[in-house]
Amino acid sequence: MREHRVLVVDDEKLVCWSLSQMLAGAGYAVQTAMSGAEAREKFNDFVPEMVLLDVRLPDANGVELLREFKGHDEDVVVLMITAYADADSAVSALKIGADDYIGKPFDIENIRHIVDQGFEKKKLRKEVDLFRRELRKKYDYDNLIGNSSKMIEVFKMIKVCAGTDAKIVLVLGESGTGKELVARAIHYHSARSQEPFIEINCAAIPENLLENELFGHEKGAYTDASKSHKGIFEAAAGGTVFLDEIGDMPLPMQAKILKVIDARKFRRLGGSRDIDTDVRIIAATNQDLPYMVKEGNFRGDLFFRLNVMSIPLSPLRERKEDITSLANYFIERLNEEYGRGVQGISPEALECLQRYDWPGNVRELRNAMERAMMLEPGTMLSYEFFNHEIRQCGQATKIKGPSPASHGAPAVAESGYITLPPHGISIEEVEKELIQQALARFNGNQTKAAQCLRMSRDTLRYRIKKFGLQSAGRDDE
Asked: Any idea where the domains of the chain sit in the sequence?
């Protein structure tokens, strides 16, 4: 568990000593200050997550210090302590942002309970904020579905990266393959799962704002910087920072990210001190980083630091055996989302999905399924509600049987029965389809099917075995 930092500020030496002993014994990292000046110095150097702050100090007003500390870090927990049972000062402190108010003399064990409770409230606030973000991504885990060999390898790598607390992970793949989902899976299956997962799209933020988003700024760092602001690396302490589309990150920022990786430190804009960071960095891109390094568009040293644990994601066209599982999963999830009662997908619709190449990968598949389910009036999803490109691809490769008037003439003998699709077709697929049609026409009779296909029965048997159709035919004469 990460050690929480507590700063005790009181002008009584005994109070500082007793509180620091109690808190250190409870597992907290503690420093003390006996004046306002010392408190300011310790606040900047120690960067506490909680401050136990006396209202009256020799050289400062505790309420004003509270205001300063909250201005530097709005998330810091401040507990006001005083020997004066002054309701006005209590109300004033609470209005400014104090988390609690403790009167002297106090019970040490009660203070420990209040401190523990303060950190628990801070954790809950963070979880609520994260929950709001996650709620918008309720269905984002859809992409990580499949039992193909390529997906199994991805699952293995996720388990390794999560289990070993790998500090740097690089996820590679085309748009829509689920790079963010892999990053989230690593985070939520690791020991860091209770800490923040914060993402940033390096291609979506202008260069002049990206540094501020990543590292934050001090008050007065620029014209509109009216108060200090934590960047992502600070807000994600103990958790994961996901740098999406890192291939689009400007070269000057790449140098600063490299420094964070190597030194585990960074500096806010306008800041004069380094801040330690303990985060896992997961970077992702759909670009060819080695080529970009060769062309001088990506730093070679950063690429080699990122490419320690890499997870390549295959496009959907290279793992079409996962389409059936994905389609059924989307039906289940979309039924839940839209209150539908679709029970399955027709063979013709599934064939359309299998034959399409999915340039947008799983994201495009989900969109196609969503469209079809919203338009489908029945309980079985049919192909007619897919968009034109998907329907056309399925229909162009479909081999039509002969008309009743042809009296058994081969399908390939009549014009228009086979149309070569734009992306080509496997001759073996055509052959397998014709054999299946012939066997179906003659109720599995291999002799009649062989005659229809103008081949010997032994040749037909060989091809039945080759295509795994053994159960489809029999040796009837």
From this structure: 5-132, 160-313, 317-396, 404-472
Q: Check residue 129 and give its pLDDT.
A: 65
Q: Which of 324, 332, 369, 374 is nearest to 350 (CA)?
A: 324
* Cα–Cα distance list, 432 to 128, 135, 346, 354, 439 (Å): 56, 47, 21, 16, 11
| pLDDT reported for residue 394 | 61
* CB contact set of 323 (below 8 Å; sequence gap of 6+): 316, 350, 353, 354, 365
**What are the per-10-residue average pLDDT scores of the chain (477 residues)?**
84 91 92 94 92 90 89 88 66 79 80 88 75 49 74 92 93 94 91 92 90 90 82 93 96 94 92 90 96 95 95 94 93 90 92 91 94 92 89 59 41 46 72 86 86 82 82 57
Helix (H) or strand (E) holding 311: strand 310-312
In the chain, DSSP finds a helix count (H) and a strand count (E) of 19, 18
pLDDT of residue 72: 85
Other Cβ atoms less than 10 A from the Cβ of 110: the count is: 10
160-177: burial string, b at 16+ Cβ within 10 Å, e else: ebbeeebebbbbbbbebb
Is residue 172 within a helix (H) or strand (E), and if so which, with residue range?
strand 168-172
**Residues 5-132, CATH architecture:** 3-Layer(aba) Sandwich (3.40)
For tokens 């100090």, name the residue: 57
Residue 8 phi, psi dihedral angles, 5° rounding: -105, 125
Round to whole Å and give the CA distance between 295 and 350: 43
Residue 141 has what pLDDT? 47
pLDDT the model gives residue 134: 57
CA distance 291 to 12: 64
pLDDT at position 29 is: 93
DSSP 202-236: TTTS-HHHHHHHHHEE-TTSSTT--S-EE-HHHHT
**pLDDT for 402:** 43
**Architecture of the domain defined by 317-396:** Orthogonal Bundle (1.10)
Round to whole Å and give the CA distance between 192 and 468: 47
CATH fold label, 404-472: Arc Repressor Mutant, subunit A (1.10.10)
Indicate if 317-396 has the same CATH topology as 160-313: no
- Give the C-alpha distances (Å, rounded to integers) separating 378 from 346, 381, 387, 424: 11, 7, 18, 33
pLDDT of residue 410: 41
Look at residue 318 in the predicted model and tell me its pLDDT.
Answer: 93
- As a CATH number, domain 160-313 is 3.40.50.300
Q: For residue 179, which amino acid is it?
A: K
